[in-house]
Design goal:
Elements (H helix, E strand, L loop, with lengths): L19 H5 L8 E3 L4 E3 L1 H10 L5 E3 L27 E5 L4 E4 H7 L6 E3 H8 L5 H88 L13 E8 L11 E6 L5 E5 L4 E5 L5 E6 L3 E7 L4 E7 L4 E9 L4 E8 L6 E5 L2 E5 L3 E6 L4 E7 L5 E6 L6 E5 L4 E5 L5 E6 L12 E3 L5 E4 L3 E5 L6 E6 L5 E7 L4 E6 L4 E7 L3
Antiparallel strand pairs: 1-2, 1-3, 4-5, 4-6, 7-30, 8-9, 9-10, 10-11, 12-13, 13-14, 14-15, 16-17, 17-18, 18-19, 20-21, 21-22, 22-23, 24-25, 25-26, 26-27, 28-29, 29-30
Length: 492
Amino acid sequence: MTATLEKSHVTGSDIVYDCSICEDDGIHKEGMFFCQKCSKYFCAGCELTHRKFFKDHSVTANGESGKRPVLKTVDGALMFCEEHTTEKLTMVREDDEKLLCQVCHLRNHKQCSRVVLLTDKVKSTIQPMDVAQMKTCIESLMELLQDVIKIGEQNTTSLQTSYEKVLEKIVDVGRRFNDNLDRLQHNTERKLKELHSTSKNTLENSRKQCDAFIASREDVPHVVDSNKVISIKAQSQYKVRTPIDKRACNITGICESSNGEFVMADFSNGCVKLLDQGYNLKDQIKISTSPGSMCKISSNEMAVIASDSHSVDVIYFIRVDNVRIVKLKKLKLSHECNGIAFHHGNLFVTSSTAVYQYTMDGRQVKTLYENQSAGYNGVGVSPDGKRIYVTDINTGKLLTLTSDGAVTASLQDPAFCISNITPNLHVAATGQVFVLGEKSIRQVDTDGKKILNTINLRRSTPKSVYFNERTSKLIVGFSNDEFVIEFKTNAS
């Protein structure tokens, strides 16, 4: 429906606005004041009340401004024309849905055919709905609402289930974490107790050994004579081949621990054995290459030369600890090694043609003595370190050197010429010097100039000799044999 409007002669100054507050109560009073922030008109009474509550609002009286503000409805829609601010919007042009006031229509849109009143436009867009349609619509909305509620309940249930599962996992992880911590604590405490017990026992044993050693030395009425002739009173043999040995033994080195246990190198079976004082096996470890000469470097530590069929170039360091043999470290040298001895932090090692001095970390100090035509084998050092003894199996000589490598004595004996490489020399802790022959043991004076005694052996090819200064017993190891021989001497 198209509205036909007559020409109006009303101007903006003729417009009278009602008080917005009074109008809400059905009372028509002239709004003589206008608040821009509130977009409302007030009568004199309402303006006083407004001013008390909103002192920061700017209120203007009618006539103070040449242009009225553009008012809006409560929901934000325009009530007055933006161009003719005193005119309400009452019409709409259907072509472009532009809102018009009466002045806009009379001045600019009189010729437009599709201009209708806003009230008619609103009525025409409202479609009547019968009760059945309304009921169906409400039921559909109710079903949709029920579905939304059901989905919400399902989501709530799922959320609760997820929460319980996650909480259960957190509790389980915490329990396992605590169990692992408890287990770790238990194992650590157990190992610490074991280590403490082991260390305590080791220290206690060392203390007892020191006390016993001091007591035994206090009972000695005189200084040991290193040149006293050692004679044999009796002999016994003890089996040292073990059930796991594949061959007869070749005992190339013998030492003794602080507990009186024997440590023996077995070349043929590629191992080092620990035996008690009754020669019962306590421990046995494999060496990657066959062990040869061996020397003692402390109360429970030894150095062992290891070899293969071609050369000898590795020194193993081992320790006896609680009836066990423990490997400590190894040194790899650049030459073959036949014999080894130790004194005050230095190792003395022989190759076939030279005698070398090394530190314990493998640093070569010097070449002590060298002869390209020699066949040096065994080596030993006097207790005071002033004399170094070296055997030459090619010439059958025993050389005595100073710590600077000067030769002070040369003793030759056909018995010293042996057919195979063996560490055929032992210097006891009490200073006695023993040299192995093919079927005998020679005791040599400490100057290395004369033979003091010869101990004949019933077996051939002795490979090692060790003098136990504590018991004054002489132990001899052999090649291709299951036994060692223990000799009781006149010092027993």
